[in-house]
Design goal:
Elements (H helix, E strand, L loop, with lengths): L1 H15 L14 H12 L6 H29 L8 E2 L16 H24 L5 H37 L4 H22 L2 H12 L6 H6 L13 E7 L10 E7 L8 E4 L9 E3 L24 H7 L7 H7 L11 E5 L4 H6 L4 E5 L3 H7 L3 E2 L5 H30 L14 H8 L6 H20 L8 H4 L12 H16 L31 H5 L4 E4 L11 E8 L5 E8 L3 H11 L58 E2 L2 E2 L5 H7 L6 E3 L8 H15 L5 H8 L10 H11 L6 H10 L17 E11 H8 L8 H5 L8 E8 L5 E7 L1 H4 L5 E4 L4 E4 L2 H16 L2 E11 L4 H6 L5 E6 L13 H4 L3 E9 L6 H10 L3 E5 L4 H11 L8 E3 L30 H10 L3 H4 L2 E3 L3 H13 L4 E6 L5 H7 L2 E6 L1 H4 L14 H10 L6 E4 L7 H35 L13 H19 L27 H33 L1 H7 L6 H7 L3 H4 L10 H21 L20 H21 L4 H4 L2 H41 L12 H7 L11
Length: about 1450
C-alpha cells in the first residue's frame, strides 16, 4: 500500500517543492538539481501508526532474542552479555557469603554438624542392649529433631544459594526485560483482539474517510491521546499517517510522541535548541548524502542550519549583490525581505520564523539505542550489610569456640569421659555450635528482608497506582492511610517468591491498551541487588533533578510597571490572596529584624543592587523609577496557584459535554492575587485598560468552538509539501497559555461569571474579530543563539510552539459599536508601536519619551534575567476605515514580520502593519514561575529528617536564584555552584554580583564537576553542603551524584520517569524514584478507538522503560511530596529489621551460653537438653517472635534523627566491643537463670518420683529418716549416683530448665520492640500488634509442649517459691535490660545523634573534612559507636 501511495504522489510532491531559506542549494548548482533532490526525498514516505508500531515491535523482539541468546551463552560458556549493565556492587557478596569460598560456615561446618547429629541419633540407640519405654520415646524425639535439624540446614543452604543466584541474575537490568516482555505481550494481545473485528472496522473506516478532510482540524485540536505542548521534555512532533488511510492518500497529522516510541523512518520536526533523539537527516537532503546528518544527542544550533538559512538569519545592512537580488523577491529563497510585512501562512518563511524548524527523517530507532546503551556505576554496599558480615564472622568463631569449649568441659568433668555417649551428653557441643551457626539465620534474614521491602512497597502502592489515591487512600489531613493487612501480605508473598524465582512477572499497566486503575495490581518488586530496605532507611541526600516537579505549572503575577501621572513610572507589587491558614505564617514573617538571613524562607527574598522605587505601605511619595532596578519579590510569600486541568476524558471514557458556564466555572483558577499598595485604586483608569487586555489574552473572548473555526487554516496552494503544511498547522493551532494574565484581570476586577451582561460576565460585551501575531527577526536571532542554560522556564515550556513576540487582537465593543486594538507581548516590540502612554492617575495621554522606553526595556531585561515572564500591554481605538480590511481577513492565520534593519528602522510597512501602529502604552507585567506550594514544607521536612535536599537546575544562577529563594533554599552566601565548566580565567556572565555578600563576592566556589572534586580534595567540603546546583546537564548531574557517593552519602534521586536522559542519574544513584506525569497529562479515548493516538500501554511503557533502574515509580506530580512518608517507612522498616536481627542473634547466643553452661552445673547430673524443645526454641519460637518485631512502626520523633553516612569502616572487635559486650550481657542473663531453676526442679522432682533412690544413694545412713522428712536438695543435687542416672525427674527438670529459657526470651523480647525507647514511655503492644500475637502464640506452644513432655505430677511437686522465681526472673532480666543496658545505649545513641545533627546543620564553610573526626577513625580502622545493631 505504501509503494502505491509513493507512486501516486511522486509527481505532485515534486511540483509542489520549491526552494526556500530552509534548503541549502550549495550542494546543487541550480534550482533544477534542488528540485530533483526533493523529488528523490519524496520517495521517503511517512510511516503510518500501524507501520511504526510494527517496527517498534520488531526492534523490541530482536533485542529480546539477543538477550536470550547471550544469556544462554553466558550460562554455557561464561560469556558476558555486553548489554548487561555493569554494577560494581553486583558481584558483592550478600550477607550470606564468604571472601574466598562462598558460605564456608554452611558447607563446611553447619551441614556436617547437622549430619553428625543425625548420625549419632541413630547409632547410639543401636549400641544400647535394652531401652526402657521412656528411653525409647526420648530416642524417637531425638531422631525426629535430628532429621528436622538436618532438613533445616539443607533448606537454609538451598535458600542461600538460590537467593544469591536469583539476585545475580535479576539485577537492575531485569526491569528492562520485564518492561519489554510485558509490552510485547500487550501488543500481541491487542492485535489479536483487533483482528477479530477487521471487517466491521473496514466498513466504518470507509464511511469515516469521506469526512476526514472536514474533521481534520477538529481531531487535531482534540485532547484525546495528545500530550500537552508544555511541561513535557523528550517529546517530539512526529508526522504519521492515519490507520484509516485505506485509499493511500497519505495525508497524515503531526502528533506529540515520546522519544522512545519513535522508530526508524519517522518524520520528526526539530528546531534550533532541540536535541536529536537519534541519528537523523533532513528531509530536504538525499538519503545517500551525509550532509546535514545530526547524531543522537546532538543539540541543533544556528551552525547546523543550511547555509542559506544562516544567511537569512544573520541580517546584513549591506547585503551581497546575490543576496540583494534574492531579497527583492518577496517569496524567494534568499534573505527574508527587508521591512515589515505579513508572512504567508503556509510558507517556508513561517517555518523559518518558528526557530528554524525543519523536518528530519530518523535513521535509527531511539529505543534500540537506549536498550543497548551500556551503564556503569560504582555502588558501595550499605553499612548494615558490612556490619552483618562482621557479626556473621564473629558468630562463626563463637560457634566453633562453643563446640570445643563444651566438649572440653564435658571431658574434664569427673566421669564425663566414661559416660560421654551413654548419657547423650555428646549432643551438647553440637547444639551449642548449631545455635549460632547459620542453620536458621539464612531463612530468617531472607524473610526479614522480604517483610521490610514489602512494607515500603505497600506504603508506596497508592502513590504508584493509577487510581484516585488522593481521594480514596488519604485521610482528611492529607496523610496516607496505613496499608491493609491483606495488601501487605500480598506484597510479602510476592517479594518472597521474587527472591527465589527468576520468572519475569507481568509488569503493571503494559499488558493491555486500557490503563489499569485497579488497586489490586501490585507494583513491581525491585531485585534484591538494589538493597531497597538497606539503603532507603539511611538516605542522607535527596536530589531533585527536574524542574517540573518543583515548579508551578504556570506563572504568577508579581510586579506591574505603569506610567505615573507625576512623571516617570510607578511599580505596583502583587501578592496572593492568603487563605485563613496562611495568615499566621504571614504575620510571623513580618516580625523580623531586617536581616534577610534571619527571616523565614517564606518571606526571605534576594536583595539586588541599585536604587529601587516601588510602592510602600507607609509612604505615598512618588519616586522616578530607576532603570537599574533588578527584580525583587513582594514582602509577602508568593503562594503557588493550584493546578487545574481541562479534562474532557476521565478514566478512559468520554464524559458528557458540559455547558459553557459549568465548564468555565470548573476551569477557573481558585487562587487570586491582590495589590499590596492600598492606594492602588488611584491607578484604576490604567488598570481597567490593562485588565481588558489581560482578559483578551488570558480568558479569551471566544468560546472553544468558535476558536476552532477562527483558527481553521486556509487550504494550501501547493507551494510546500503536505508534511510542512500540516507542521505549520501543528505549530500554530495552539497559542501559549497566559494564566498570569487571567489572574491579573481577576485582581483588577474583571469577572467572567455569568451576570446581567451575559454568560461570560464582564467580557460578554466584547467580541473578538481578528488576531495578528508579530514576529521580530532581531528577537528571533537572539532566541536561536540563546544558550540552553539562559532560557527561562516559561520560554522553555512554550518552545514547541511558534513563539510570537507580540499578539494583537481586534475587539468590537457591542455597547458602543466601536473597535479596539489590544496588544500584548515583548516590550521591545510593543513600545515600537506606541508613540504615547496612558497615565491613569490623571487620565491623560502623554508622549512616551525615549527615557521611558529605555527604562521599560531595561526593566524587562533585568526581569528576564531573574527568570520572569514579561508582558507589555498597549491599546488603541480602531478607525472605522479599517473595518472592511478586518472583515476580509476573517478566518485567516495572519503573521506579521518585523525585519527592518537597524540602520533603517523607519522602512515602509506593508499589509496589516498600518493597523497596529499608533497604540498607547499601558504597562509592563512581570510574572514568575514559583515553586509548588508543597515544595517548601517538603524541604523543611527533609532538613528536620536529616536528609539534605539538593536541587539541580538546568538554568543559570540569575534565573534560578529567585525560585530557590521562594523554595526556602539559602541564597545568601556560598549557596550555589554552577556545574558548567569554565576555562581558566574566564568569567561567568550569569553569576550574580552585588555590593553586599552574595553569590560571588565573599567566596569563589568551584565551577564544574572537576573543580568541585579538586576543591573537595584541596580546600574544604563546602560543595557537599550546597543545596543548589545550576547550569546542569544530565551528565554533570550523574557525575555530581557520584561525588556525593564518594563522600559517603546515600543518594536518593527523584525525577521524571519518561525522560531517557534521567536513566544515567537513576542508575548511578543508590535509590531512584521516578515520577510519571504523562499519565495525568494525557487523556485517552475508549478502548479500541485510539489507534491513531497514543495508547495507555504505550505511555506506561515509556515511563517504565525510561526508569528501569528505579526502585519505585510514582504517578502524578503531587505524589512526589509523599516521598518523605516512604522514607519514614523505610527508616522504620530498617530499624525494626535491625532490632529483629538483634533479638534473634541474642536469643541464639543465649541458647549457646545455655548449652555451654550445662557441663558447668554444680549438679552431678549434666542436664540433657530436650531435642524437640530445642528445635521448638531455635526453629519456631525465636524466628516467630523475631519476625513479628519487623512490623514495628516508627516513633513520632523518628523523622527528626539524622541518619549515619555510609562510611567504609572495618568492623573489628576493637571498634565494636560495646556492641558485643552489651549483646553478651543481654544473652547471659536468660541463659544463667534456668540453671538455678534446674537445681531446684531436679532436687524436688527426685524426691517426688524416686524417693527410694534418693534415700538409698544420696542420703547419709545416720540421719536418713530425719533427712527424708526435711527433703533437702543439696545432697540430692550433689549425689554421685546421679551422674549416670536417667529418669522422669532428670528429663522433666531439663524440660523445665528449657522452658525457663524460652519464657525469659519471650519476655525479654519486649525490650526489643523499641531499640532505644523505654517501655515505660509507650507500651510496646500499641505500635506492634503482630508482636503481641506472636508472643501469645509462643506461650501457647510452650504450654502445649510442657504438658506433652513433662511427667505426670511434675508441676504439683514443685514448691511455691519455684513458681515465683520461674515467673519473676524473666521480668528481672527485662528490668536489667531496660534500666542498665538500654539506658547505656540511649546515652551513646543520643550523643552520636547530636554529633550528626551538629555536622548536618553546620553552616557552609565552617567545617572541613580534613579536620573532621571521621577521617581519623578511617585511618585507625575503627568503628564509631553508633551502630544500629545493639
Amino acid at each position: 500500500m505504501m509503494k502505491n501511495q509513493e507512486t501516486q504522489h511522486e509527481g505532485k510532491d515534486a511540483a509542489s517543492l520549491q526552494p526556500s531559506p530552509l534548503q541549502d542549494p550549495s550542494s546543487s548548482g541550480d534550482g533544477k538539481n534542488n528540485i530533483e533532490n526533493e523529488v528523490a526525498v519524496s520517495n521517503q514516505s511517512p510511516l503510518s501508526w500501524t507501520e511504526a508500531r510494527d517496527r517498534l515491535r520488531c526492534k523490541l523482539e530482536q533485542w529480546k532474542e539477543e538477550r536470550k541468546q547471550y544469556r544462554r551463552n553466558s550460562s554455557a560458556d561464561m560469556i558476558i552479555d555486553p548489554y548487561d549493565d555493569q554494577d560494581d556492587d553486583k558481584n558483592e557478596e550478600l550477607i550470606f557469603s564468604w571472601k574466598s569460598l562462598e558460605d564456608p560456615d554452611l558447607l563446611l561446618v553447619t551441614i556436617p554438624m547437622a549430619a553428625l547429629h543425625t548420625l549419632l541419633s541413630f547409632i547410639l540407640p543401636a549400641t544400647t542392649i535394652k531401652q526402657s519405654q521412656d528411653e525409647a520415646q526420648f530416642t524417637k524425639r531425638q531422631q525426629a529433631a535430628a532429621i528436622l535439624l538436618l532438613g533445616s540446614s539443607l533448606f537454609s543452604t538451598w535458600i542461600t544459594k538460590r537467593r544469591r543466584k536469583v539476585s545475580r541474575e535479576t539485577d537492575r537490568s531485569i526491569e528492562r526485560r520485564r518492561c519489554v516482555s510485558a509490552f510485547l505481550d500487550g501488543m500481541t494481545k491487542s492485535q489479536s483482539d483487533d483482528s477479530d473485528d477487521d471487517d466491521d472496522e473496514k466498513v466504518k473506516l470507509d464511511s469515516d474517510t469521506n469526512n476526514h478532510d472536514v474533521n481534520s482540524m477538529e481531531s487535531m485540536l482534540d485532547n484525546v491521546g495528545a500530550i500537552p505542548r508544555k511541561n513535557v521534555e523528550d517529546v517530539h512532533s512526529t508526522y504519521r499517517i492515519s490507520c484509516s488511510d485505506i485509499d493511500g492518500k497519505g495525508e497524515g497529522q503531526w502528533h506529540r510522541i515520546p522519544t522512545l516510541l519513535l522508530v526508524e523512518g519517522d518524520f520528526i520536526a526539530l528546531k534550533v535548541g532541540d536535541t536529536a533523539p537519534a541519528k537523523c537527516r533532513p528531509l530536504s537532503s538525499s538519503s545517500s548524502s551525509d550532509d546535514g546528518i545530526i547524531e543522537a544527542g546532538e543539540r541543533l544550533t544556528v551552525q547546523s542550519l543550511p547555509k542559506m538559512t544562516k544567511e537569512t538569519l544573520v541580517f546584513h545592512d549591506t547585503p551581497t549583490p546575490k543576496a540583494a537580488k534574492n531579497s527583492n523577491q518577496k517569496g524567494g529563497g534568499g534573505l527574508l525581505p527587508q521591512g515589515r510585512y505579513s508572512v504567508k501562512y503556509h510558507s517556508n518563511e513561517l517555518l523559518l520564523l518558528a526557530n528554524g524548524v525543519r523536518i528530519f527523517v530518523l535513521l535509527e530507532t531511539p529505543i534500540d539505542l537506549f536498550l543497548r546503551k551500556e551503564q556503569t556505576a560504582k555502588h558501595r554496599p550499605p553499612a548494615v550489610l558490612r556490619q552483618g558480615k562482621a557479626i556473621r564472622i564473629a558468630f562463626f568463631i563463637i560457634g566453633l569456640s562453643s563446640f570445643f569449649l563444651t566438649l572440653l568441659f564435658l571431658l574434664v568433668r569427673p566421669g564425663g569421659a566414661q559416660g560421654f555417649f551413654q548419657s547423650y551428653t555428646c549432643f551438647l557441643p553440637i547444639w551449642a555450635a548449631l545455635s549460632v551457626l547459620p542453620i536458621t539465620s539464612p531463612v530468617y534474614l531472607y524473610l526479614l528482608e522480604s517483610i521490610g521491602t514489602s512494607r515500603i512497597l505497600a506504603t508506596a502502592h497508592p502513590l504508584a497506582s493509577n487510581q484516585k489515591w488522593n481521594r480514596e487512600l488519604m485521610d482528611r489531613g492529607g496523610t496516607l492511610i496505613k496499608p491493609s493487612a491483606r495488601l501487605l501480605f500480598r506484597y510479602i508473598t510476592a517479594t518472597c517468591s521474587s527472591r527465589i524465582v527468576t520468572t519475569l512477572p507481568i509488569r503493571k499497566g503494559l499488558s493491555s491498551k486500557k490503563v489499569e486503575s485497579s488497586s489490586d495490581t501490585l507494583l513491581n518488586i525491585p531485585p534484591a541487588s538494589l538493597y531497597l530496605l538497606e539503603k532507603l532507611g539511611v538516605v542522607t541526600a535527596l536530589t531533585l533533578i527536574d524542574d517540573e516537579l518543583a515548579c508551578d505549572p504556570f506563572s504568577t503575577p508579581q510586579q506591574l510597571l505603569i506610567p505615573s501621572g507625576q512623571g516617570g513610572l510607578k511599580l505596583l507589587d502583587l501578592c496572593p490572596v492568603y487563605e485563613e491558614e496562611d495568615d499566621a505564617d504571614a504575620s510571623e514573617g513580618t516580625e523580623h529584624n531586617g536581616n534577610t538571613n534571619n527571616q523565614s524562607p517564606r518571606v526571605r527574598r534576594s536583595n539586588s543592587a541599585g536604587d529601587v522605587s516601588s510602592d510602600s505601605d507607609d509612604s505615598n511619595d512618588e519616586t522616578r523609577f530607576n532603570f537599574n532596578h533588578s527584580f525583587y519579590a513582594p514582602r509577602k510569600t508568593l503562594r503557588s496557584i493550584r493546578k487545574y486541568k481541562k479534562k474532557k476524558f476521565a478514566g478512559g471514557k468520554v464524559r458528557e459535554e458540559k455547558g459553557e458556564e459549568e465548564e468555565r466555572e470548573e476551569t477557573k483558577i481558585s487562587s487570586e492575587v491582590q495589590f499590596e499598595d492600598p492606594q492602588w485604586w488611584k491607578f484604576l483608569p490604567s488598570l481597567k485598560c490593562i485588565g481588558l487586555v489581560a482578559s483578551a489574552f488570558g480568558e479569551g473572548l471566544l468560546t472553544a468552538e468558535k476558536r476552532k473555526k477562527k483558527m481553521a487554516p486556509n487550504s494550501s496552494d501547493g507551494s510546500i509539501s503536505k508534511p510542512k503544511t500540516s507542521l505549520i498547522d501543528h505549530l500554530c493551532c495552539v497559542e501559549r497559555e497566559r494564566n498570569q494574565l487571567r489572574l491579573l484581570s481577576q485582581c483588577i476586577g474583571f469577572d467572567t461569571a455569568p451576570n446581567e451582561s451575559g454568560s461570560r460576565g464582564d467580557l460578554s460585551c466584547f467580541v473578538e474579530r481578528l488576531r495578528l501575531h508579530i514576529i521580530s527577526s532581531n528577537l528571533l536571532r537572539e532566541r536561536m543563539q540563546l544558550d540552553s542554560h539562559a532560557m527561562g522556564l516559561e520560554e522553555f515550556r512554550n518552545w514547541s510552539l511558534l513563539y510570537t513576540d507580540a499578539d494583537v487582537v481586534f475587539v468590537k465593543d457591542k455597547r458602543s459599536g466601536g473597535d479596539l486594538i489590544l496588544s500584548c507581548g515583548d516590550s521591545r516590540v510593543v513600545t515600537k508601536l506606541c508613540p504615547d502612554c496612558f497615565q491613569g492617575e490623571n487620565s491623560t495621554i502623554s508622549p512616551l519619551t525615549a527615557g521611558d522606553r529605555k527604562v521599560i526595556n531595561n526593566t524587562q531585561k533585568e526581569w528576564m534575567l531573574s527568570d520572569l515572564d514579561v508582558q507589555a500591554f498597549s491599546y488603541a481605538p480602531l478607525p472605522y476605515t479599517a473595518d472592511q480590511k478586518i472583515g476580509s481577513a476573517k478566518g485567516k492565520g495572519i503573521y506579521l514580520l518585523d525585519n527592518a534593519p537597524a540602520s533603517n528602522p523607519h522602512i515602509p510597512s506593508h499589509d496589516y502593519w498600518g493597523l497596529v501602529k499608533h497604540q498607547i502604552f499601558l504597562g509592563l507585567l512581570g510574572s514568575s514561575v514559583g515553586p509548588r506550594k508543597e515544595i517548601e514544607p517538603f524541604i523543611h521536612s527533609c532538613n528536620d529528617a536529616g536528609v539534605r535536599f539538593v536541587y539541580f537546575s538546568p538554568r543559570n544562577m540569575r534565573r534560578t536564584k529567585e525560585l530557590a529563594s521562594q523554595m526556602g533554599l539559602d541564597v545568601a552566601w556560598n549557596c550555589c555552584i554552577s556545574l558548567r565548566p569554565l576555562e581558566e580565567g574566564a568569567d561567568d556572565n550569569f553569576r550574580m554580583t552585588s555590593n553586599y555578600a552574595d553569590w560571588d563576592v565573599n567566596a569563589k566556589l568551584p565551577h564544574g564537576v572537576e573543580d568541585v572534586k579538586r576543591h573537595l580534595e584541596e580546600v574544604d567540603n563546602v560543595p557537599l553542603l550546597v543545596s543548589l546546583y545550576t547550569d546542569v546537564s544530565k551528565k554533570t548531574t550523574a557525575e555530581m551524584v557520584d561525588v556525593f557517593q564518594d563522600y559517603n552519602d546515600t543518594v536518593l534521586a527523584v525525577g521524571l520517569s519518561h525522560l531517557p536522559g534521567n536513566q544515567k542519574v537513576f542508575f548511578g544513584s543508590d535509590i531512584a524514584i521516578g515520577v510519571d506525569v504523562l499519565s495525568e497529562e494525557v487523556s485517552f479515548a475508549e478502548e479500541g478507538k485510539g489507534c491513531d493516538t497514543l495508547m495507555p500501554s504505550e505511555v506506561a511503557f515509556v515511563s517504565s522503560i525510561s526508569t528501569w533502574s528505579s526502585s519505585i515509580n510514582l504517578v502524578g506530580s503531587q505524589a512526589m511530596y509523599h516521598i518523605l512518608e516512604i522514607i519514614r517507612i523505610g527508616r522504620s522498616s530498617l530499624e525494626a529489621a535491625v532490632t529483629s536481627v538483634g533479638f534473634f542473634f541474642t536469643g541464639c547466643l543465649s541458647y549457646c551460653i545455655f548449652a555451654v553452661l550445662c557441663p558447668c552445673t554444680v549438679a552431678t547430673s549434666v542436664p540433657i537438653i530436650p531435642p524437640l524443645g530445642s528445635f521448638l526454641y531455635n526453629q519456631v519460637i525465636l524466628p516467630m517472635i523475631g519476625l513479628s518485631l519487623a512490623f514495628t512502626d516508627g516513633s513520632n520523633e523518628f523523622m527528626s534523627r539524622v541518619p549515619s553516612k555510609n562510611e567504609s569502616f572495618r568492623y573489628s572487635w576493637r571498634g565494636s566491643r560495646r556492641i558485643y559486650f552489651n549483646g553478651l550481657l543481654r544473652a547471659f542473663l536468660p541463659a544463667v537463670v534456668p540453671h538455678f531453676l534446674y537445681l531446684i526442679a531436679l532436687g524436688e522432682l527426685m524426691w517426688e518420683f524416686d524417693p527410694q533412690f534418693v534415700s538409698e544413694k544420696c542420703l547419709l545412713s545416720s540421719n536418713n529418716s530425719e533427712q527424708v522428712a526435711r527433703r533437702p536438695l543439696s545432697p540430692v543435687i550433689r549425689c554421685e549416683a546421679l551422674r549416670n542416672y536417667r529418669g522422669d525427674a532428670t528429663e522433666s527438670a531439663s524440660v523445665i530448665m528449657l522452658a525457663s529459657l524460652i519464657l525469659c526470651t519471650c519476655v525479654a523480647s519486649a525490650s526489643f520492640v523499641f531499640r532505644t525507647e523505654l517501655i515505660r514511655s509507650e507500651p510496646p503492644w500499641k505500635r506492634n500488634h503482630m508482636w503481641v500475637g506472636s508472643l501469645i502464640s509462643s506461650l501457647i506452644l510452650l504450654t502445649i509442649y510442657m504438658s506433652t513432655v513433662l511427667a505426670e505430677g511434675s508441676v504439683a511437686a514443685l514448691p511455691w517459691y519455684f513458681f515465683a522465681l520461674f515467673l519473676l526472673t524473666p521480668f528481672i532480666c527485662l528490668l536489667i535490660n531496660e534500666k542498665i543496658l538500654k539506658n547505656s545505649d540511649r546515652l551513646i545513641d543520643r550523643r552520636n545523634e547530636m554529633m550528626r545533627r551538629l555536622q548536618f546543620e553546620t553552616k557552609l564553610g565552617m567545617w572541613s573534612p580534613k579536620e573532621s573526626q571521621h577521617v581519623n577513625i578511617q585511618q585507625t580502622n575503627m568503628q564509631p559507636d553508633d551502630s544500629p545493631i545493639v
